[in-house]
Amino acid sequence: MLFECRVAKEIWEMIPTSFYVSASTSDNLIENINYLLVGAKQDKREALNFFAGWNIWKMRNNILFHHKRDHILRVIHAAIRENQCWNKAMDIESSQKQSTGVQRNQMENIHESNKSKAYGMRMSLLLVTVIN
């Protein structure tokens, strides 16, 4: 269904990624998904394939359960839009993690600095006590 039906093949041909369904594409769903995973790990833009597959699946469900068929371009645009939202969310999360890491390092430095000051004060008090 995701790779073999005529409409799905048309969608895969129009999605702007390196993946395309051909005679050499496996009939095995797991092999095709593994191929897509490898591609997505190598190039972030290839993650669009997963959103294409998801939207093909949703189109299938709309046909089956609601007797409503979306236009192929609508399915492709939805996949692209969802992929853009995903990438934006990942960029925000990544920048938050970096920001949090910097803040954590700053807090650790302050903590270490305070520990050093406290140690220095204790040593001064100890010296004063020993001298007196």
How is this fold's topology laid out?
Elements: H1 6-14, H2 29-42, H3 48-66, H4 72-131
Describe the protein's architecture and organization.
By secondary structure, the chain is mainly α. It has helices at 6-14, 29-42, 48-66, 72-131. It has one domain. The protein is built from four helices and no strands. The longest helix is centred in the C-terminal third of the chain and has 60 residues, at 72-131. It is elongated. The mean pLDDT is 82. This is (rape) hypothetical protein.
Question: Could you write a compact summary of the structure shown?
Answer:
This protein has 132 residues and is an all-alpha fold. Helices cover 77% and strands 0% of the residues.
Key structural traits:
single chain; 132 residues; mainly alpha; 4 helices; elongated; (rape) hypothetical protein
Q: Could you estimate the helical fraction of the residues in percent?
A: over 70%
Number of domains: 1
Structural class: mainly alpha
Mind telling me the C-alpha Rg? 28 Å
Estimate the global geometry from the Cα principal axes. Answer: elongated
Q: What is the averaged pLDDT score?
A: 82
| Helix and strand run | HHHH
**Largest sheet at a glance?**
none
Please report the distance between the alpha carbons of the first and last residues.
Answer: 89 Å
> What percent of residues are in strands?
under 5%
Poorly predicted ranges: none
Q: What is the count of DSSP helices, taking H or I runs of 4+ residues?
A: 4
Q: Number of DSSP strands?
A: 0
